[in-house]
């Protein structure tokens, strides 16, 4: 035991030496590196780390450890706080008005079922690999560096854009709380495209204030969130009680019936409101700050998703009971609904409560986005400066400040409607990838089965899900729906029967009834993605091209150089004895 401690101490010391080694290279060296890009892509794209390396060696690159102070009730509060403000107060009104009608509560049920299955996949990964990287780390240890990076970059994009848009909704509701017109708190700029021409300085001030709070302490931020969430849930109870007591069931069927936009409208709405569930993903990024991850994470993730799904449905239903769907305001829907039933004072209270909920959701989301960037920085896919954890606070200070400034900059001018659907497609894609990774890890990495069987199953499953979804969307060849649906069930049952799954010894938590929950998650995520508009895929394609280009021009070279430095081989000059010593320590470990 003493020997292991000595070796670990030696490894940590040498990692610090590697960190302090200058990594700047000249422009000519960089051009030379670019000429080796094909070789480095072949070596790095599918390179994987073991969970032990992710938990120990990679984490040392941040210098100090994050402080383990969170408990299960902190996680439930973080999950509820992160999801509630975004979903109800930002997406319910627009979706009810333009997409789903009064059946928006059914859209929330469908999205919640999909989120529940996805959260099961996240939970197993987070228990087995309790690091702050979330989907990035899970995919990196399963499918390799590039897919992990691709997922991490998409998660970061959706966090930054959604936080910016939600912060602007804070201004809407705060104005209703004090009886002001939101336009009076914003500055209109001439000769700027519509949707970008209203500067929102209160949203910027809120983001900067929360950024400073998160830099100070995770535990204190969690206590603040817990306090706000308790008041928030009480406030939700008030809205639900009023909606059911003062509302009218007639508003659910007039005008146009329960689903005036048809079944497609309900499903299209489910894809958009899915954006509301990304808060539970933030909970998984807290893994390095939890006192007992194996027990607290399943309770925190699954508990928060179930509670929030129930509250979403009741809140959406209460809104549609209060006013007909075609009279719902798209910006501050709940406040305006109370005004229309003659409760002006309640409208102000709702505005204040909604503002509080949005602050709580922003706090959690900004907490999660900084930890994603920190872990991506540890992997050297972005500059290692982002991986720094400040010893005095135990927080990723650099990542928090950088992303806070980015979010504030976008919140200054960007409207929610412009980015809502691109956020949904990124969320659905990452959850789809995590479900695939869980099946591959369970049946190949852990059970040591040949990868060809599992890969063939995953390809057939995704192809069939796409075929089913497109047949539904295009409303052609209805006979294909039962055929493709039956085929998915058949290949899943055949895979379960023919490919054995082995549980790890001393495994504390795993998804039951595999592979069915992960298969359901894959199907639902694909189905919901196909309901989004073509413009969402075009915008996503541009983003995917940009992040892939960044990986080719920077990420793959940075990680290649970092790994070679730690191994003490390759392109690193031989006059660095400390790095050679690191190689010996790694081999001994």
Automatic annotation (TrEMBL):
GO molecular function: amino acid transmembrane transporter activity
Ranges annotated as spanning the membrane: 75-97, 103-125, 137-157, 198-216, 223-245, 257-280, 301-325, 345-368, 389-412, 418-440, 452-472, 478-497, 509-528, 540-556
Membrane-topology descriptor: Multi-pass membrane protein
Any Pfam family matching the protein: AA_permease_C
Highest taxon of source: Eukaryota
Compartments (UniProt record): Membrane
GO cellular component, one term: plasma membrane
Protein name (Swiss-Prot/TrEMBL): Cationic amino acid transporter C-terminal domain-containing protein
Organism the protein comes from: Populus tomentosa (Chinese white poplar)
């Amino acid at each position: 035991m003493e020997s292991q401690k000595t070796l670990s101490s030696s490894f940590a010391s040498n990692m610090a030496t590697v960190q302090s080694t200058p990594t700047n290279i000249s422009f000519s060296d960089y051009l030379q590196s670019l000429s080796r890009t094909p070789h480095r892509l072949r070596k790095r794209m599918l390179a994987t780390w073991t969970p032990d390396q992710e938990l120990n060696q990679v984490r040392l690159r941040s210098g100090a450890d994050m402080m383990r102070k969170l408990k299960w009730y902190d996680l439930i509060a973080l999950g509820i706080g992160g999801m509630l403000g975004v979903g109800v107060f930002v997406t319910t009104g627009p979706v009810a008005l333009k997409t789903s009608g009064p059946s928006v509560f059914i859209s929330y049920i469908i999205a919640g079922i999909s989120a529940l299955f996805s959260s099961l996949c996240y939970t197993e990964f987070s228990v087995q690999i309790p690091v702050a990287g979330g989907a990035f780390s899970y995919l990196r240890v399963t499918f390799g560096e590039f897919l992990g990076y691709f997922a991490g970059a998409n998660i970061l994009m959706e966090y930054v854009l959604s936080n910016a848009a939600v912060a602007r909704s804070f201004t809407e509701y705060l104005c209703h709380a004090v009886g002001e017109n939101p336009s009076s708190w914003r500055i209109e700029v001439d000769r700027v495209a519509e949707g970008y021409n209203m500067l929102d300085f209160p949203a910027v001030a809120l983001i900067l204030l929360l950024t400073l709070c998160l830099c100070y302490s995770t535990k204190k931020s969690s206590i603040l969130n817990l306090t706000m969430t308790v008041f928030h849930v009480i406030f939700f109870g008030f809205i639900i009680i009023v909606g059911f007591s003062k509302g009218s069931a007639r508003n659910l069927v007039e005008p146009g019936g329960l689903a005036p936009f048809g079944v497609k409208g309900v499903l299209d709405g489910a894809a958009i409101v899915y954006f509301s569930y990304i808060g539970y993903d933030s909970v998984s990024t807290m893994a390095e700050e939890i006192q007992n991850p194996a027990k607290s994470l399943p309770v925190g993730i699954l508990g928060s998703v179930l509670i929030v799904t129930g509250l979403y449905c009741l809140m959406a239903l209460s809104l549609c009971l209060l006013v007909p769907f075609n009279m719902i305001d798209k910006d501050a829907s709940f406040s305006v609904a109370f005004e229309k039933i003659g409760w002006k004072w309640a409208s102000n209270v709702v505005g204040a409560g909604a503002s509080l909920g949005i602050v709580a959701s922003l706090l959690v989301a900004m907490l999660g986005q900084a930890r994603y960037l920190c872990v991506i920085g540890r992997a050297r896919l972005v500059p290692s400066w982002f991986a720094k954890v400040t010893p005095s606070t135990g927080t990723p200070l650099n990542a928090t400040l950088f992303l806070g400034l980015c979010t504030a900059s976008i919140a200054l001018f960007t409207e929610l409607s412009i980015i809502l659907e691109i956020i949904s497609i990124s969320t659905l894609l990452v959850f789809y990838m995590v479900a695939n990774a869980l099946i591959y890890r369970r049946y190949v990495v852990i059970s040591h089965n040949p990868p060809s069987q599992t890969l063939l199953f995953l390809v057939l499953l995704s192809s069939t899900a796409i075929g089913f979804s497109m047949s539904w969307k295009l409303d052609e060849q209805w006979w294909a729906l039962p055929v493709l649906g039956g085929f998915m069930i058949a290949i899943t049952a055949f895979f379960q029967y023919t490919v054995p799954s082995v549980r790890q010894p001393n495994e504390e938590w795993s998804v039951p009834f595999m592979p069915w929950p992960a298969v359901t998650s894959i199907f639902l995520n694909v189905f919901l993605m196909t309901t989004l508009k073509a413009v969402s895929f075009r915008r996503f394609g541009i983003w995917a091209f940009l992040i892939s280009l960044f990986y080719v021009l920077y990420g793959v070279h940075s990680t290649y150089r970092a790994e070679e430095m730690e191994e003490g081989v390759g392109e690193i000059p031989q006059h660095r004895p400390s790095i050679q010593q690191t190689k010996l320590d790694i081999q001994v470990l």
